[in-house]
Amino acid sequence: MNRLTAEDFKTAPKLPLTLVLDNVRSLHNIGSVFRTSDAFLVEKVILCGISSCPPQPEIHKTALGAEFTVDWMYEEDCLQAIKALREQGYIIYAAEQATGSICLQDLRLDPGQKYALVLGNEVKGVQQEVIDLCHHCVEIPQYGTKHSLNVSVASGILVWSFFEQLRKRL
Question: What CATH number has the domain spanning 6-169?
Answer without folding.
Answer: 3.40.1280.10
